[in-house]
């Protein structure tokens, strides 16, 4: 543990507690976990909330957990950059691969599908999502969710008496975390200010990345602006020459550089998956636009679609969606591609188009060169999305609504 960095020491304590023999671990263990896409907002929100809440009476240790296997953490190059600013590295974080497993994993970095921990011996606080999914849900931990701080659409899966239960629109989940933690954080700063700037940099990075330095006015809420001011003040107490724009520019440049990633890694870097009945939906978020992706595929739309098809086949998707964000010439843009790859997936996409066209203000992308409407059993559209406030947390529920509508229509 590095002297002078209480945040690093806290994460080391969380690790040693989790890795202790079962007979020596406290019970229940309290975890704070973000969503499966494991972006900076999810990862930093978990660390910041866990650290602050662990200092508040009754000083129950909250263990921050990255909701992905350790092997995938390396894809989050922007997270590595953020951690460095806080005197940390990826090895300081805990991932699904670090949970005690019932069966040895084929790879030390892979997340096991079965965990030694019994659900009754755990408590879970969700940040940046309000519906526990994936291997954690399959192992029964969803029944032990006791709190939630989130800015997505309410899935009504977190019980009404959860504490906290904060689910409201905001540019970044971190802004809600800061709002929830502010009183304790203020007291903590008075007692020991040594972790203040490191913690604040984690918080500030998450908000700036999610709101593009507060420039996406359609997303930014008052709590985002308030949180940024609060965090800036804490950093500047220890570093008066700190420049927020330079800080953002550095991290954003790292995030946008996906030039060294394979297409598979690009599509799985920020990926979420949903299952509805017999249908599976996968949504990949990419920090470059469709023009860039086609260019990466030797300027061939067919080659790009082949890469997407390969990934979608690996995940056995009925619907594959790619959502992009980019800033060509300083103009924030969103592109959206939706591909129904099976008859039932195509039926859902057909329902999605009228449902989303006006809400998302969709315009055909590049003369519809990625569209496919004349092949039996599949249906594909690519658009420029002019509703800039609608990120995956708004688009995914529309796709899932279309899936339910298609399923109900097929059963009539």
TrEMBL record:
It holds the Pfam family DHHA2. Its cofactor is Mn(2+). InterPro entries: DDH_dom, DHH_sf, DHHA2, DHHA2_dom_sf. It comes from the Eukaryota. Keywords: Hydrolase, Manganese, Metal-binding. Residues 248-403 form the DHHA2 domain. The keyword Oxidoreductase does not apply. The keyword Metal-binding applies. GO terms for cellular component: cytoplasm. One of its GO terms (molecular function) is exopolyphosphatase activity. This is DHHA2 domain-containing protein. It comes from Drechmeria coniospora (Nematophagous fungus).
């Amino acid at each position: 543990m590095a002297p002078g960095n209480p945040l690093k020491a806290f994460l080391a304590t969380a690790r040693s507690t989790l890795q202790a023999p079962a007979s020596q671990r406290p019970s229940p263990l309290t975890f704070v976990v973000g969503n499966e896409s494991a972006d900076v907002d999810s990862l930093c929100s978990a660390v910041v909330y866990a650290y602050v809440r662990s200092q508040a009476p009754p000083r129950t240790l909250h263990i921050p957990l990255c909701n992905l296997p350790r092997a995938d953490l390396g894809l989050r190059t922007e997270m590595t950059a953020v951690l460095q600013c806080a005197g940390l590295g990826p090895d300081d974080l805990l991932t699904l691969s670090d949970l005690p497993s019932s069966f040895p994993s084929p790879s030390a970095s892979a997340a096991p599908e079965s965990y030694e921990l019994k659900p009754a011996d755990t408590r879970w606080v969700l940040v940046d999502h309000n519906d526990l999914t994936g291997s954690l849900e399959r192992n029964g931990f969803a029944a032990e969710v006791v709190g939630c701080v989130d800015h997505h659409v309410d899935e009504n899966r977190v019980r009404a008496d959860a504490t906290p239960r904060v689910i409201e629109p905001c540019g970044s989940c971190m802004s809600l975390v800061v709002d929830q933690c502010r009183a304790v954080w203020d007291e903590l700063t008075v007692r020991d200010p040594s972790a203040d700037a490191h913690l604040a940099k984690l918080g500030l990075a998450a908000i700036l990345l999610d709101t593009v330095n507060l420039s996406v006015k359609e997303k930014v809420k008052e709590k985002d602006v308030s949180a940024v001011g609060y965090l800036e003040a804490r950093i500047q107490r220890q570093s008066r020459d700190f420049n927020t724009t330079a800080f953002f520019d550095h991290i954003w440049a790292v995030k946008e550089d996906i030039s060294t990633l394979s297409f598979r890694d690009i599509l799985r870097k920020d990926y979420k998956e949903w299952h509805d009945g017999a249908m599976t939906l996968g949504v990949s978020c990419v920090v470059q636009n469709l023009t860039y992706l086609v260019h990466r595929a030797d300027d061939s739309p067919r080659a790009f679609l082949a890469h997407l098809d390969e990934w979608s086949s690996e995940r056995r998707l009925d619907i594959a969606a790619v959502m992009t964000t980019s800033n060509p010439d300083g103009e924030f843009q969103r592109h959206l591609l939706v591909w129904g790859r099976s008859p039932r997936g195509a039926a859902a996409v057909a329902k999605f188009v009228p449902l989303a066209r006006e809400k998302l203000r969709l315009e055909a992308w590049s003369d519809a060169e990625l569209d496919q409407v004349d092949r039996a059993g599949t249906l594909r559209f690519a658009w420029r999305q002019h509703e800039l406030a609608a990120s995956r947390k708004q688009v995914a529920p529309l796709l899932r609504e279309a899936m339910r509508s298609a399923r109900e229509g097929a059963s009539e």
